[in-house]
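Q: Make up one entry.
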Amino acid sequence: MGAFVYGFIRSAQAGWDTTTFATIVAAIFILCAFVLIERRASQPILPLRLFSDMERSGAYAGRALYISAMVGFFFFTTLYLQQVAGLRPALAGLAFVPATMLHVPIAIIVPRLIRRFGHNTILITGMLIGIVAMVWLSRASVGSNYWTAVALPMILIGISQGLTLSPLTSSGVARVAREDAGAASGAVNVAHQIGSSVGLGILIAIAAIGSSGLTGADLTAHRVSHAFDAGTIMLVATLLISIFTIVPAARRQALSQEEAAQAKCAA
C-alpha cells in the first residue's frame, strides 16, 4: 500500500516516468505475493475465505471507494478554503462545522432507520446524497460563495457519512464464521485505511492532470474541481457495487429471516 501511495503521489510531482511506473508495478507484484502467501498460510493474516461471500466482498470494495472520496473531500476542501477562499487555518477548521453537525446525530439514529426502512434503503439513500454533494462541491471555483458552494454540500456530506458507514460495516461482517469474526472486522478497517491512503494518492494524481499553465488560486481551484469529479466517480462506483452485491445479498437474508419467522409461527 505504501508503494501504491508513493507511486500515485509521485506521478503528480514528477509525472509518469520510469520510477513511477516501477513503483506501481512493484506494488502490484507485492500484493500478488501477499495473496499467494495468504492462500498457503495455515494461520493467514487475512483469510481469503472472507471474500467468498458476495455481500462482504462488495462491502470491502465499496468502503474503500467511499472513504477515498470522503478523505479527498476533507483534503481538497481544506486546500480550497485556505488557498482559494483565503481563510486562515483556524477559520478553515471552523468552516467544516456544517459537515460534522449532522454526522453524529444521523449515525445515532441509523439503527432505528434501518429497522423502519431497511438496510438497503438507508445504504442507497446515503450514497445518493453523497453523490449529489460531491457533484455540488466540484462546481466551486474562484469567487464562489462559501455558504452556497461549500457549506450546503458539506451538510449533505455529513448526512451521507452518517447513513452509509454503519450499513457498510454490518455488511462487511455479515454471515462470518465465529473464528473469522476478528479477521472480518480487521478487513473492514483495512478497507477503510486503504481508501484513506491509496484513494487519496489516486485523487492527488488525478487532480494534477491538465493543470499546466495555471498558477495561484486558479491552479488550486482546478485541482480541487478535478479531485471532486474523480470523487464523484468513486461514489458512483460504490453505488453500483452496492446495488449488484450488497443489496441482493441483504434482500435474500431478509427474506430468509422472514420465512424462518413464519415457519416458527406456523409451528
About this structure: The chain has one domain: 46-266. Residues 46-266 form a domain with the Growth Hormone; Chain: A; fold (CATH 1.20.1250.20). The longest helix spans residues 216-266. The chain has a mean pLDDT of 92.
